[in-house]
Design brief:
- The complex is a heterodimer of chains A (about 280) and B (about 575).
- Chain A is mostly helical.
- Chain A has two domains: about 140 residues, no CATH class; about 70 residues, no CATH class.
- Chain A contains eleven helices and two strands, in the order αααααββαααααα.
- Chain A has a two-stranded antiparallel sheet.
- In chain A, helix 2 crosses helix 7, helix 3 packs parallel to helix 6 and helix 8 runs antiparallel to helix 10.
- In chain B, helix 16 crosses helix 17.
- Chain B has three domains: about 240 residues, P-loop containing nucleotide triphosphate hydrolases (Rossmann fold, 3-Layer(aba) Sandwich); about 60 residues, no CATH class; about 140 residues, Rossmann fold (3-Layer(aba) Sandwich), CATH 3.40.50.
- In chain B, strand 19 and strand 20 form a beta hairpin.
- Classes of the chains: A mainly alpha (about 280), B alpha/beta (about 575).
- The interface between A and B is large, with 51 and 63 residues.
- Chain B: This is ABC transporter ATP-binding protein.
- Chain B: It is found in: Cell membrane.
- Chain B: InterPro entries: AAA+_ATPase, ABC_Co_transporter, ABC_transporter-like_ATP-bd, ABC_transporter-like_CS, ABC_transpr_CbiO/EcfA_su, ECF_ABC_transporter_ATP-bd, P-loop_NTPase.
- Chain B: Probably part of an ABC transporter complex. Responsible for energy coupling to the transport system.
- Chain B: Belongs to the ABC transporter superfamily.
């Protein structure tokens, strides 16, 4: 089975050739730019740019389709929740009310609310491609080095990258355990009713934890035996030096961030108001 | 006199979590440049000796120490694990588990990274070490693409990068197919000779390690050192038998023949051993033992017809595999790492669907049966019991498969107790599983399959990581099941197991069946041995060198004789 979520996808593209640290910094600045603003014009610009970058990276949509679907479902739930808990948010923000139709006094559909929720959705769409790209185009070897480079302690950086690296191994374990349990008659296929399936699936958890603990003991012994944690610093075999491309990318995203902050805060309001 | 490099003096160690000391008043000196093998059963304390040398004891595994352990003249307690790692390099048993880097170069470089070596120096040193272990053409390869032997080389490189004086190998042969294991022993020997390191090997597969010379063998039992001698003397003594460590098969055969092994005859290597003293007795024994009895052919229970399988259409993993297993047979499936053995069992159990071909159980086509339906007739026991156990109590674990089938409580109780009784676990039925040893856990997993009353039992590496006593225990248990009429198929790397317990073996190489014959015939056929990464049996060599007319028959007779002896023990 070739389902390996969120692992490195090897392609030759300008995005891949940037160093991990550059991508990480760009991703952070990009997220700041998108998170701080509700200005629809900026969000639209960022969205179009992120789609462009995604195309440039040569990553196919189907490579990340599973995660994407997961995020989209989450986004949908988020949108529904916003409406349920705060159906008048848009009216409050934009200070006007264009009712399209209404169910009750509180739960009506206003242009303002729709516009507000569209902005929220747009934020997601701006950040998602950047986040996915950072993960799937950064070689795992470089990942820890780049976290370390921007100041994260190397112990934490290494733990994070180790955790990411073990995802495929744990998926393999999971699959093996699931098959073993099915071979004892614990059906997890669609033939079984959902509550039973969930109960049966829970029988995978304990073996999975046990086998993961074994793995952790071995790897932590090995790391210690080979001197991990000896010094305050460490060097990285697969770290790459910055070159011109990296500076250009950082400059470009930096300018975007400043531009976004400037446009957002020049009129003292984070929201772009088309209704006034 | 050579300089001592490792010195245990009245050394006692007790793990904090245990009541009794694991090592008791040990005195052991290892000299610079020596090559030492430490053998002992599971729980004898041999791994703890290794942990003391590399510093995991007392720095990772805490406990109480008395006496002293000096490495290079320094007491380890005052050194710390990092200082020790500059003197002792450790290669652990599972190459996959100990890789930290993703590529070959990165993994070798790990120690250097931690020492803050600058990148240009690091790359130069990695290149140098990769040449030493002959992996310089693979630096950018991902570790997953490598063969078992190459992985061993990389893990060796990873510790050699530090220019340590002592290399410690903790069960280097576990998880390797026989031929790869042989290469690993050759590689260790080559490193020993070329770079003049002190080598300590901890391993219970004595015959395999003796493929190359070792200077001394240390035997550990119950935390004590009960043997410390050159191999020739050890093999001539009875220490191995007493400590339940498996003797080399040729020594066993000689002992069967009533020979008293003398250290002067160089029993360390079968191909250099002086056999004049033993020849007559051996030939006499050969003549006096019985011909083997051919088992009567019964009805086939499991048949595979032209099975093809592959995850991708152009890269077949199994190609045109057909065989038939008779009812009540005990069969081995052998072959090199990655030959497709595990995939074959997955296809049989229905975890994967073959691209073409049929699987028949008692003549009925299984193709459209689900995993669950097949599990009623074919039981599968995985290699790692921790992958199967999902309950806390033994009874619940064994009952699980029946509970989900919704059987009445009475019947469940009766069947579970019967399975536990067969597995010798009935007294423990209300114990938590965590209180069991590895071998007992294995039996729990077998019991949890047995309750389902399958007709065919498939076991993946049933004895991996077991010492001789547990190995014998598990195998004798399987023989008992087999005598009750259960058909048993085993996937194994253990040539002894294949030879002694399964009359017939099926050999898989590169996804194809290359042999299906008597085990003894396979292990005396050099073409098959080479193709499938197996290892010839030393019995064959012994028979040839002793001038037995039909050496292959000698192997057959040895096995049936040994089975007879085994039955007398029961």
């Amino acid at each position: 089975m070739g389902v390996e979520m969120l692992s490195y996808i090897d392609k030759k593209s300008p995005i891949h050739s940037l160093t991990g640290a550059t991508k990480l910094l760009c991703f952070i600045m990009w997220s700041f730019a998108a998170m701080l603003t509700y200005d629809t014009r900026i969000l639209l610009l960022l969205f179009m740019l992120s789609v462009t970058i995604f195309v440039v990276s040569k990553i196919k949509l189907r490579d990340v389709s599973f995660v994407l679907l997961f995020i989209l479902i989450f986004l949908l739930i988020n949108n529904i929740a916003i409406y349920l808990f705060s159906p008048q948010e848009g009216v409050k923000i934009y200070g006007s009310e264009h009712i399209l139709f209404s169910f009750t006094e509180r739960y009506n559909i206003t242009l303002e609310q729709l516009f507000y929720q569209m902005n929220v959705t747009l934020k997601y769409f701006t950040v998602i491609p950047a986040a996915l790209l950072f993960i799937v185009t950064t070689h795992p070897s470089e990942f820890a080095a780049s976290l370390n480079k921007i100041g994260v302690s190397y112990r934490i950086a290494f733990s994070v990258s180790l955790a990411l690296r073990y995802i495929p191994d744990i998926q393999r374990d999971y699959r093996n355990i699931a098959l073993a349990q099915q071979a004892r008659g614990l059906d997890m296929s669609k033939k079984e009713k959902l509550p039973t399936r969930i109960k049966n699936a829970s029988s995978i958890i304990l073996p999975l934890i046990l086998s993961s603990l074994d793995r952790i003991e071995v790897i932590s012994n090995v790391m210690e035996l080979r001197g991990f944690g000896k010094n305050k610093k460490r060097t990285w075999y697969s770290e790459r030096p910055f070159n011109r491309k990296d500076y250009i990318a950082l400059f470009f995203v930096g300018v975007l961030l400043i531009l976004s902050l400037f446009v957002t805060f020049q009129n003292g309001d984070r929201f772009y108001n088309p209704f006034s | 006199m050579k300089k001592p490099i490792i010195e245990f003096t009245d050394f006692t160690f007790k793990y904090r979590s245990q009541a009794k000391p694991t090592l008791n008043q040990i005195n052991l000196t290892i000299y610079e440049g020596e090559k030492i093998l430490i053998v002992g059963a599971s729980g004898s304390g041999k791994s703890t000796i290794g942990h003391c040398i590399n510093g995991l004891v007392p720095f990772s595994y805490r406990g109480d120490i008395s006496g002293s352990l000096k490495i290079n003249g320094k007491d380890t307690r005052n050194e710390g694990i990092f200082a020790l790692s500059k003197m002792v390099g450790t290669v652990l048993q599972d190459p996959d588990g100990q890789f930290i880097g993703l590529s070959v170069g990165e993994d070798i470089a790990f120690t250097l990274e931690n020492d803050c070596v600058s990148q240009p120096d690091m790359r130069a040193r990695v290149d140098e070490v990769a040449k030493m272990v002959d992996m310089d053409n693979y630096l950018s390869h991902s570790l997953h693409q490598l063969s078992g032997g190459q992985k061993q080389r990389v893990s060796l490189g990873g510790v050699m990068v530090d220019d340590v004086d002592i290399l410690l190998f903790d069960e280097p042969l576990a998880n390797l197919d026989p031929a790869t294991g042989k290469h690993a022993i050759e590689l260790i020997d080559q490193i020993h000779q070329e770079w003049n390191k002190t080598i300590v090997i901890i391993e219970h597969r004595l015959e395999d390690v003796l493929h190359r010379h070792v200077d001394r063998i240390i035997v550990v039992r119950d935390g004590l050192i009960v043997g410390d001698s050159i191999p020739n003397e050890l093999l001539a003594s009875s220490i191995l038998e007493d400590c339940s460590i498996r003797e080399p098969l040729y020594i066993r055969a000689l002992k069967f023949a009533g020979c008293k092994i003398s250290p002067d005859t160089n029993p360390e290597h079968i191909n250099k051993m002086k056999l004049d003293l033993y020849k007559d007795k051996l030939l006499h024994w050969y003549e006096s033992t019985n011909e083997r009895v051919q088992a009567p052919i019964s009805a086939p229970v499991l048949q595979l017809e032209n099975i093809d399988f592959g995850y991708q259409p152009n890269r077949p993993i199994l190609h045109n595999i057909s065989f038939s297993i008779e009812k009540g047979e005990m069969v081995s499936i052998v072959g090199k790492n990655g030959a497709g053995k595990s995939t074959l069992t997955k296809v049989i159990c229905g975890f994967e669907q073959p691209t073409s071909g049929r699987i028949l159980l008692e003549g009925r086509d299984l193709t459209n049966d689900t995993i669950k339906e097949r599990s009623l007739t074919i039981g599968m026991v995985m290699q790692n019991p921790n992958h199967m156990i999902s309950k806390h109590m033994i009874y619940d674990e064994v009952a699980l498969g029946l509970v989900v089938r919704g059987l009445p409580d009475e019947e469940i109780k009766q069947r579970v107790e019967e399975a536990l009784r067969i597995c010798g676990l009935l007294p423990y039925r209300n114990w938590p599983i965590s209180a069991l040893s590895f071998g007992q856990k294995k039996r729990v997993t077998i019991a949890s399959i047995l309750v389902l009353k399958p007709q065919v039992l498939i076991l993946d590496e049933p004895t991996a990581g077991q010492d001789f006593r547990h190995y014998t225990e598990i195998m004798e248990f399987l023989v008992k099941l087999n005598n009750l009429g259960m058909t048993i198929i085993m996937i194994t790397h253990d040539m002894h197991l294949m030879l002694e317990y399964t009359p017939r073996a099926i050999v898989i190489a590169d996804g194809k069946k290359i042999a299906d014959a008597l085990s003894a015939d396979i292990l005396t056929d050099y073409t098959i041995i080479e193709q499938a990464n197996l290892k010839e049996t030393s019995l064959f060599e012994l028979a040839i060198r002793a001038g037995v007319k039909n050496p292959r028959d000698f192997v057959h007779r040895f096995i049936s004789y040994e089975k007879g002896v085994g039955r007398k023990w029961e």
